[in-house]
Design brief:
The protein is built from nine helices and 13 strands. By secondary structure, the chain is of the alpha+beta class. The strands form two sheets. The protein has an eight-stranded antiparallel β-sheet with strand order 5-4-3-2-9-8-7-6. Strands 1-10-11-12-13 form a five-stranded antiparallel β-sheet. The chain is globular. The protein starts with a helix and ends in an 11-residue tail after the last helix.
Length: 281
Amino acid sequence: MSPFLSAYFARIGWQQPVSVDIETLRALHLSHNCAIPFENIDVVMTREIQLDDQCVMDKLVSARRGGYCFEQNGLFERVLREVGFEVRSVLGRVILANPPQMPPRTHRLLLVELNGERWIADVGFGGQTLTAPIRLITGEEQATPHGVYRLMNENNDWVLQFRHHEHWQSMYHFDLATQYFTDYVMGNFWSAHWPQSHFRHHLLMCRHLPDGGKLTLTNYHFTHWQGARAVETVNLPDASALYVVMQERFGLGVDDPKHGFSLTELTAVMAGFDTHPEAGK
């Protein structure tokens, strides 16, 4: 086993053998979601996000930070490839907020081919991200540990949807075209620097739980969800309380010399954020 895989498995608490099969893929997917939080702290701190393998490894694994889709799915792609899966990244256009026109390709997800079947894996979409791979097949409801999803297809344009109460909510469009590292660099730069990017104006975190629940954070608003029900909701009073929640509830590392951050740094960057935002999911 490579030093990289050993470090990654330690990061997610993995102690099982691995095989190139759907059971391993499902278990790795869920373990990743439950161990490595989705977060955009570097964006709000105006730190540049680097996507090369070493930088992603240093931040998400060694420093025990989290990240967003370009980092999360970049890391997971490397893991799956080293285990022996046939996997590559594709890019999607996020439509969760019903934009008035089709947005650019700013979401990275994974296409896995296994025993003649194709699967979509995605560990980087925040609160609504998949927590299990789903078959690349149109119209079939597919259950994951944290919700029911389906894929719709028209003229090679796929749409991922999740069931929200009594209706289907579209998350993103994607196709299976070959992408290159520069495409991820471009999408990452847009996500972090476009003035209207929501990643620039809100602190966002999510960690899924093995029991089907999840923890979310929008600025100072912390919620523990169990399905669609909020079982704990807290408006954190200040950056000090936020700093504690990040570490104790989300398992976030803050002490790394390069990728960590101090309470003073967090306080400064959060000064312009609302301490009582509306709850987000």
